[in-house]
C-alpha cells in the first residue's frame, strides 16, 4: 500500500457533501473507498471513473476532508490537478470534472483526450 501526502485531485465543497451523503446511505459497504481514475473509451478517448471500490496493489491512497480515496498510480499522469464538483441543478445534475491535463473534452463532460 502506498500513501501520497498531497492529493492529486481536489473536491469542491459540493462534491464532498454529495460523497458523504452517498457514504451515509443504507447499504453502503464501509470497506470500499472512493476511486478516482480513467478508463479507455468515450467520444474523446478516455472516460473518468468515480465510484466506490476496493483498493488494489496498484493504488495509491490519499484522503480529502476525511474521505478515503484511491487512484491507480498510472492514472495520476492524466488526472493530476483535476477538480471534481457536484452540480445539483435541474438542467445538469451529477459530478463534473475540470481537468487541466485535457487537450480536448467532449460535450458530455465525462470523456477527454490528452
UniProtKB/TrEMBL annotation:
UniProt-listed PROSITE patterns: HESB
UniProt superkingdom: Bacteria
Residue ranges occupied by any Core domain in the UniProt entry: 9-109
Native source species: Sediminibacterium goheungense
Record GO biological process: iron-sulfur cluster assembly
The name this protein goes by in its record: Iron-sulfur cluster assembly protein
InterPro entries, A to Z: ATAP, ATAP_core_dom, FeS_cluster_insertion_CS, HesB-like_dom_sf, IscA_plant_cyanobact
Signal sequence, start to end: none
An MF annotation (GO) of this entry: 2 iron, 2 sulfur cluster binding
